[in-house]
Amino acid sequence: MSTKVIHAIYNDDDILMDAVKETRSAHHHIEEIYTPFPVHGLDKAMGLKPTRLAICAFLYGLVGLAFGTAMMYYIMIVDWPQDIGGKPSFSFIQNMPSFVPIMFEMTVLFSAHLMVITFYMRSRLWPFKKAENPDIRTTDDHFLMEVALHGEEEEAVEFFKKTGAVEVKVIDKE
Amino acid sequence: MYTFSKNLKTLAIVLMALGIIGIAYGFFNAPKTTAEVEQILTEQAHHDGGEHHSVSEADHDAHQKHLEHVLTQMQNKPWTAVYVACIFVMLISLGILVFYALNYASAAGWSPVLFRVMEGLSAYLLPGSIIFFILLLVSSFGGNHLFIWMDPAIVEHDVIIQNKTGYLNVPFFLIRAIIFLVGWNLYRVYARKQSLKLDETGDLSYHKKLFKATAVFLVFFIVTESISSWDWIMSIDTHWYSTLFGWYVFASFIVTAITVIAFATLYLKSKGYLEHVNTSHIHDLGKFMFGFSIFWTYLWFSQFMLQWYSNIPEEVTYFIFRIQEYNVPFFGMLLLNFVLPVLLLMNSDFKRLGWIISMAGVSIVFGHYIDFYLMISPGTVGGSWSIGITEIAALMFFAGLFIFAGFTSISKVPLLVKNNPLIEESKHFHY
């Protein structure tokens, strides 16, 4: 069964923002919006939930800190506590200042890289991924709003023409 | 227009009055002779449950020397309390002025709604620097023993200090202090005047003049701040030196200054005086508190770790003494100045809540008071330290004076700058 969607194309982000608000108040369901650059406030206008990526990064940072600490503790204190240049290796706390640069860098490394990987996974990005671009102009200077079509086709097209779209298409989607 | 509320004025006056009483008590209680010191020490030994150690004739001289040493420390204690509180609060008002200058010079679009708060609070700089200069004069003319290099009897037997007298001598020291204090105060008076003229006339040439003066001031400031921190703080531990000390002191007082700005903003906002200040402005102040707290910690650790790691006797004694004699404040301050602010202010939503900013702010202000205490007290009071009535009273006195001077100045002119070219942007600032 194929469903129909409407592709409304705009050429200005201010018009797009107004169109999003009108579309939402008319209770059309916005499937997706394609823009060539970040449009400030678009996520709020669409009613998207805020990202939790920062919380992930904080947790990854804690993992990195724990990893760095455990690694230095095991290597320098437990496994082979040598006297290296008179640094006290009797307990972790005694030699702790010299481990801080490593613990810090591990925190940053884990939190940055794992957060980026999380971002790729959540937004399904990887090399050789097939681009999901419905219209090539959306990477350059056009904005495209994809809306699920329910009910009258003509009426919906009229509605989106009115919101300032330069082009409105009805597409069959598999 | 803000009217200085009766409650706040009373609070400021009560703080000052209690402060004076406490300071007087501290000076009155300080021992005058070695006999008194001996009595205090034996009492302490009793409290600690230690046994009487009888003094043999041979040890008598050494014991007498020790008593004189402790006497100097105990006599220094009230002076140190006043000195620490005085320099701390004065540098906070200087930090507020510098933060104002930074925002002006960088044409910050968010902060012009807070300019009058910053201008007003920095009014303490003038009375603060006068009192501070009087303290320096008292030290210079033998009123106390805060700076050992000012004591000819010590310098006579100390080659290290003798080699530094080209820089560390009283006339040059006082001349430098005058140049720094006058320079900073001149900028503050000039900035206030231009800002008020801009308000009245709307003539943007005043804005340009102030902009240029601000750029010059920031250059003057960073040079003089560095030198003054060597003069007023580092020279107390005359044998010790650290190359990043100036920035370390700067980081310490700028973060406290931003916190104080946030406190005053929250207070005035809660009284309904800052109509255009929204949570985004508070959020920005919170970010500065967060960022500068980390910056302070970075410098603290850089200074500590480099000297701990190389372990060169002539410089590491500075930290050994602090770890041995001031263990709890030395490491406790890291909790107050780093761990608490970072954890409280990490969350973006938290930075918009007044009570979270206040909690982190209290931690920062007290933490950095301890930081200044730890820079100064080990060199003057040594092991005979305690944070008691005198220390708290001194802080109360200067805090009261700060509130009085700051809010008097705020109440004199409208709380919103009018013709600043960035004010419209600032009113509509949202993050």
UniProtKB/TrEMBL annotation, chain A:
Keywords: Membrane, Transmembrane, Transmembrane helix
UniProt xrefs under InterPro entries: ActD
Domain of life: Bacteria
Signal peptide: none
Record's keyword annotation contains Cytoplasm: no
Pfam families with a match to the protein in the record: ActD (PF11821)
Spans through the membrane: 53-78, 98-120
Name of the protein this chain belongs to: Quinol:cytochrome c oxidoreductase membrane protein
Species whose genome carries this gene: Myroides indicus
Automatic annotation (TrEMBL), chain B:
Keywords linked to the UniProt accession: Membrane, Transmembrane, Transmembrane helix
Transmembrane segments: 7-28, 81-102, 123-150, 170-190, 210-233, 245-268, 288-306, 326-346, 353-376, 388-410
Cytoplasm listed as a keyword: no
Keyword Transmembrane helix: yes
Protein name: Quinol:cytochrome c oxidoreductase quinone-binding subunit 2
